[in-house]
Structure to design on (212 residues):
């Protein structure tokens, strides 16, 4: 049996290797995206496959992507072009997550300012009602104001305590993926001209991604 040939970046020892098997490189990319190849979005299935595998790897391990390609080598720079496209996609994904995080904190600050003002008004109104009347209805209304004031703090506290860290984790993962080595392992038994129908990628094939 002929040995498979490899091209692209060198994978450092100890790296967490994400392996994808496809018949053609175009399966990795969104077929309806009209952008130039290096700016094209990944196919949603390919993205989910890569990201889910990366999440299962140790957070301190360097990542690498190994694409098992069921055809012979194409252009000499196809591995470099594939790496550029994948790096650009995840770099943009990281920027999007960072923007989302900044917008979340902006809304959190606005919500916190509104909640603090409302809480101060509720506390002042509660004290005023308590000084004016000791009747049961006044006591109920006073307690309602206190509860409403503290409930108003729920949303900003949720933002600053819980909502931000999953977005930051997503940004960090995308940043790791945007710099990972990318290598292609070719199948030498396939036709040497098979790449001509695959490169540059234009349409998406229907073949599913291989399971791990």
């Amino acid at each position: 049996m002929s040995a498979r040939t490899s091209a692209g970046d060198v994978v450092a020892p100890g790296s967490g290797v994400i392996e994808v098997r496809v018949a053609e490189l175009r399966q990795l990319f969104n077929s309806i995206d009209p952008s130039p190849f290096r700016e094209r979005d990944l196919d949603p299935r390919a993205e989910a496959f890569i990201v889910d595998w990366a999440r299962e790897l140790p957070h301190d391990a360097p990542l690498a992507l190994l694409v098992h390609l069921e055809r012979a080598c194409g252009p000499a720079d196809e591995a470099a072009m594939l790496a550029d496209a994948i790096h650009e996609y995840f770099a943009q994904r990281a920027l999007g997550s960072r923007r989302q995080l900044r917008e979340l904190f902006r809304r959190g600050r606005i919500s916190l300012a509104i909640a603090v003002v409302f809480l101060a008004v509720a506390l002042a109104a509660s004290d005023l009602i308590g000084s004016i009347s000791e009747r049961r209805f006044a006591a109920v209304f006073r307690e309602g104001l206190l509860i409403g004031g503290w409930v108003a703090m729920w949303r900003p506290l949720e933002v600053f305590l819980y909502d931000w860290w999953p977005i930051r984790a997503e940004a960090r993962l995308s940043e790791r993926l945007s710099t990972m080595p990318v290598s292609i392992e070719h199948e030498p038994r396939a036709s040497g001209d098979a790449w001509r129908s695959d490169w540059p990628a234009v349409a998406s094939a229907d073949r599913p991604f291989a399971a791990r």
User: Anything to note?
Assistant: Strands lie at 5-8, 16-22, 63-69, 182-186. Residues 3 and 51 are 29 Å apart (CA to CA). The radius of gyration is 27 Å. The mean pLDDT is 84.
